[in-house]
Amino acid sequence: MDAVSPLSARVHLFDALRGFSVLMILFANVFAFAYPLELAEKAGLSDAMSLLSQLQHQLYLLFIRGKFISLLTLLFGASLYLLWRQSCESGARLQARMLALLLIGFCHAIFIWSGDILLMYAVVALGLLWQQAIQWTPAQQLRRAKTYLVAGLVIPALIWQGSSEPIVDPEETELLIALYTGPYMGQLWQQVQYVGLIALDLLLVSYWWYGGIMLLAIWGMQSDWQAVLKKHFYKLVLIALGCALVPLFWTGLSVQRQIPLPFQIVSDLCFALIYIRLFMLIAPALPKVVELLRHCGRCSLSLYLWQSLLMVVLFRWVCPECFGRLDRLTLTGIAAGFLALQLLWVWLFYKKGQLWWFEQLYRRLSVVLENKMARAETQRRS
Q: Nearest-CA neighbor of 167 among 244, 247, 258, 250?
């Protein structure tokens, strides 16, 4: 048997990690599917909750909320570098792919669910390509990654310093529930407005924070990132737990008070790096599980989009009486059941080398856009 090249082994590991992340992110997103997105952070929270529900929420904050988005962002940055290498360092081909992702993300955010992350990833990646960030030296990439991450913390820190605890108005909640379970045109207009807020967030916070994470991943792809994670593992654990647990003194373990945002997002990034290290340690002992997760990673775009499509249909159209009404334990159970169904579906129907529905759409759009860009460049030069 031919030996697996280091690059192929790395791609296989990233595929498995991506599959794991896309499946686990449902445990965070399910609250935004089952409640108005504007209220998802407070979904079903009350100090009158049972002790079990409060414990579940604290564990969710510690190990899940924001962690898998950060992990997906690291993997997206690594994939950006690998795609650049595979396209013979052609910026045009990579730009076409990101434009295709931008179109898919925009349609997803406007017409299905405005909590979409694809649109944000595509905009940040196009910005980094415009800056030619992949061609910077590794030292420049690491230095600017640190600068971008610090810049991404500035606004959250100011918001934390100047804000008071948000008050959820029951009347406003009922209006939003009626809006999201009412006529589709009303939902559509609400989602257009929310995407406008996402654009503002991109400008002030997310471009810098996600851009810094992607630059960190691109730098890691050109260095011995496994050795780096091993060397700094315990430091990451201390920072992650410190940023997650120390702020609990502010909240007094109250589920209705929010942990300061800067602490949250630093903890999220550290936990994402910790999960990569732990996955690397556990993977050799579970080859069949890793192979199944790798298949999930190969069709991760379809899994992610089908998650949102089916959940939106379930909560807004099939069972609108449940929208904004279910408790967090019930929603966590629904997420676990849907995750199991996705794993079963991939195990039964995925074939090696197969492109699933949305991957096919993504590839075809990429080719069309690349050809159009090539023709435009030819006309410009002639």
A: 258
